[in-house]
Amino acid sequence: MSARLPSLLLFAALLVGWEAWCRLGGLSPLVLPAPSSVLATLWSEITTGRLWPHLAVTAAEMALGLGIGTVVGIGTGILLTEAPALGRLLHPYVLASQLVPKLALGPLFIIWFGFGMTPTVVITALICFFPLMENTLTGLTEIDPARRELFRMLGASRLQTLLRLKLPAALPVIMAGLRVAVVLALVGAVVGEFIGGRIGLGASIIAAQSVMDSSLIFALFVVITALGMLLYEAVRALERRVLHRFSKG
Amino acid sequence: MSTEPGFVTIERARYRYGADGPAIVDGIDWQIPRGEIHCLIGRSGSGKTTLLKLAAGLLLPNEGAIRIGGGALAGPSPHAGFVFQSPTLLDWLSALDNVLLPVSLKRRTTATDREAALDLLARVGLRDFATRRPGELSGGQQSRVAVARALIGNPDLLLLDEPFAALDALTREELQDDLLRLCALNGTTALFVTHDITEAVYLADKVAVMAAGRLAHARRIELPRPRHRDMRYAPSFAAACRELRDAMDGEAAISERPAA
Prior knowledge:
The complex is a heterodimer of chains A (249) and B (260). Chain A has a single domain (33-246), classed as MetI-like (MetI-like fold), CATH 1.10.3720.10. The mean pLDDT of chain A is 88. Chain A has 10 helices and no strands. Chain A has helices at 5-24, 35-48, 51-82, 84-99, 106-113, 117-141, 145-153, 158-196, 201-210, 214-246. The longest helix of chain A is centred in the last third of the chain and has 39 residues, at 158-196. Chain A is mainly alpha-helical and 249 residues long. Chain B has helices spanning 48-56, 95-104, 111-123, 139-151, 169-186, 197-203, 235-256, and strands at 8-16, 23-32, 37-42, 63-68, 71-72, 80-83, 157-161, 189-194, 206-211, 214-220. In chain B, strand 1 (8-16) and strand 2 form a beta hairpin. Chain B starts with 7 loop residues before the first strand and ends with a helix. The mean pLDDT of chain B is 88. Chain A binds chain B through residues 144, 146-147, 149-156, 160, 164-165, 168-169, 245-249, and chain B through 56, 58, 76, 78, 80, 82, 84-86, 88, 90-92, 101-102, 105-106, 132-136.
């Protein structure tokens, strides 16, 4: 707690400064609403229940996109490592596909999948896919050669070598990829909703913008940040648990 | 060279990396009778580790053959245990599970297997450390676990590649005694690669000096068994070390001499 005290004090000072600037500086609430106004709007959104359906949709899009991106990213990383010829053939295409800005694909996904959650989930999954594939690829190719020779010497099959040596040894690198993917998942879900969403936190920001409700936009920023931190901490907790099982002890 | 029939027979083995590369192992003939410990010494790059990997079946010779118990090797030998330069333990497994790894890769481990693994750990002084992970063990303890892992299936042949090189002198001597005791227990045949002449003389029935991929010199070590630490100070021990050192220096002088 004492370690976090300075950053909490800084946060409180920034809020007080922001509030004072809004009240004393004659700044229009349209440009920058005061923190007290943002908190009041947030409280109103919570108590009236208007926030929950949007939060649920964005959280679901994030979770689905992250889940699909994780499974496909790790699976592709394993496939490209275990079948080197396939890796050499496909890796340039996988890389090229990731260099296309995913958000620019949003309008195309709306044509393909219609409005609703699906295009946002696809965008989120595409964004999460790359760090997991790349980290899996890196983790699996950096296994100590002596340990690989040990498994050869012990007559281990390819599957045994993958499951009992390569994946456990690569887990710290894969988990680092997952941490990056969580942050990107939130960006994917919110910005995906900007493009084609009717419900969700991103869609709510667009709706608030159309009625010039800056307080609501800031209140939604707070919710999005809280959601991101919650998921990030959940992944950190999972990482600690997994790495405790598979780490150096 | 020994006239006894070799349990391990290396016949005119030649190995090179790539089709046009120089021979790393260049036409070596060698026999190790069952139950004997042979050591290979030589400078870095002399081909010791490559010859050891050929004996393990991790590499296959371009020419010649390696036979263990009469059968020519076509891949990693199921009759051999290998101890690498580093302990190569799996960080996420306990010492006991690391020792059991060779068994658990073949079948589900039983209570008997666990007893055998605990017995091996006890023999290397680590019975109380069975549940510890490698990160919680010292370098010497990790090397002991690696030796126990190599011996879990009672292999006929033990191949060791400078396994104690990174340890301090006292720990290294303790591990040498552990190794001699464990090999004597089951009559295990061993081929041990080292840079350390005194280690080779203390452990071996026969020591060979490798240089430029060839066996440059070999001598039997006539010290009685079981070996004990006082033997290190015996004149015959010093004489053997001196002879091997001179052989290594002689080979170095020949390899450094400009071509005529």
